[in-house]
Design brief:
Blueprint (H helix, E strand, L loop, with lengths): L6 H30 L7 H12 L4 H12 L7 E9 L3 E9 L2 H14 L3 E2 L9 E10 L5 H12 L3 E5 L2 E6 L4 H10 L6 E8 L3 E3 L1 H16 L3 E6 L1 E3 L1
Parallel strand pairs: 8-10
Antiparallel strand pairs: 1-2, 1-3, 2-9, 4-6, 4-7, 5-6
Helix pairs in contact: 1-2, 1-3, 5-6
């Protein structure tokens, strides 16, 4: 019987995962700078990207270096592309990529879908099932805390607060996200996760073989170097 990976082996896996996360965060910083310039004060997308990077324990020096590199000559010429498709069980999937070679990227994404019994769709075939929202998650140690989060969030401009199974979800428009997050943090509530994301409007419950195929597809997509984010509407059981 094997004894499992060594400490060195586990550390190597963890380092590789961390490097992949940092690569995606730096790409987001690069795209934000290209879109709105290197000054976070006037670039909300860059502020959000920097906040996510710091929350992931990226050093401020590395963040600032990424901003400087992104705004200089010879900056990355990659572009953003979105692909849409369906996984088994009628699950809708959005795949946001950053690439300097769309031909390569679309082939890789299509291959991942086909290998997992899914299929790619045309532009717009899936996106209508998602809405871009600001989303913050809070773990509730005390159910009474939800009422306080609700009060603070709504006063700050949140659209909705939903709670279930020891968690509280705060939703806002992308424009109001930063002010809602700041109000909650200032009130002493630290989110477990906070980001502007694509939230599905109609979750689809999937189980059995279909759920296994969905998980397989999501894993294959996440492993692709050009994939920045994957969104879906599956509730896997």
């Amino acid at each position: 019987m094997g004894r499992g990976p060594s400490i060195e082996g586990r550390k190597g896996v963890a380092d590789a995962q961390k490097a992949k996360v940092f690569t995606k965060l730096i790409r987001e910083i690069t795209l934000a700078v290209k879109q709105g310039g290197p000054d976070p004060t006037g670039n909300s997308r860059l502020r959000l990207a920097v906040g996510r990077a710091l929350s992931a324990n990226m050093t401020r020096d590395r963040v600032e270096a990424a901003i400087k590199r992104s705004s200089g000559e010879g900056a990355d010429a990659s572009i953003e592309v979105r692909y849409e498709g369906y996984a088994p069980g009628g699950v809708a999937v959005l795949v946001d990529c950053v690439t300097d070679n769309p031909t390569r990227t679309v082939a890789d994404v299509r291959h991942a879908f086909s290998k997992s019994n899914g299929h790619m769709g045309t532009s717009g075939s899936v996106a209508f099932q998602f809405a871009q929202v600001g989303q913050l998650w809070f773990e509730l140690d005390d159910p009474a805390v939800e009422d306080r989060i609700l009060e603070v969030a709504l006063d700050a401009g949140a659209d909705d607060v939903q709670g279930a199974d020891g968690w509280c979800e705060v939703l806002s428009t992308p424009a109001a996200f930063e002010q809602v997050q700041k109000a909650l943090v200032d009130a002493g509530f630290k989110p477990s996760q906070a980001r502007v994301t694509m939230r599905p409007s109609n979750p689809v419950a999937v189980s059995g073989d279909a759920a296994a195929d969905v998980r397989k597809l999501l894993e294959k997509l996440e492993e692709l170097d050009d994939v920045q984010d994957v969104f879906h509407n599956a509730e896997l059981t």
